[in-house]
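Subject: design request, 136 residues
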């Protein structure tokens, strides 16, 4: 990508969209999350069984189901240290996510990033990556 294609700052519209999206995720407000995405939204999740993508969720209702599933797996989910950047036709966000696993109460503390695309003022895709923290 040439330097001229990089946009170091988000437009005010993109700033507002990603601020709403982030607040909705932090609040666990599924309806508000769905208001930020296109009807054909695609979430390429950070983990899953299908190589090479992990798990791909398509459409608003599938997104609702995936978020409900995650709520049963993780409690007290909180996103912080977020930074969002525009790069050509992509919006890249970095974050820290903390939570507790519902199964055993173990703490989850990871850094991650999302690569998003926007279409007609809504998020059309979100490709998520998390650091894989392992005991050594």
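Subject: RE: design request

Done. Sequence follows.
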């Amino acid at each position: 990508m040439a330097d001229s294609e990089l946009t170091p700052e988000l437009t005010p519209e993109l700033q507002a969209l990603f601020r709403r999206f982030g607040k909705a995720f932090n609040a666990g407000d599924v309806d508000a999350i769905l208001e930020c995405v296109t009807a054909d939204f695609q979430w390429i999740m950070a983990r899953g069984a299908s190589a090479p993508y992990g798990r791909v969720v398509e459409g608003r209702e599938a997104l609702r189901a995936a978020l409900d599933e995650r709520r049963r797996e993780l409690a007290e989910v909180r996103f912080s240290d977020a930074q969002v950047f525009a790069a050509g036709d992509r919006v890249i966000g970095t974050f820290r996510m903390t939570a507790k696993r519902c199964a055993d109460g173990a703490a989850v503390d990871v850094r991650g990033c999302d690569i998003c695309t926007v279409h007609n003022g809504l998020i059309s895709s979100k490709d998520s990556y998390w650091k894989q923290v392992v005991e050594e």
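The mean pLDDT is 89.
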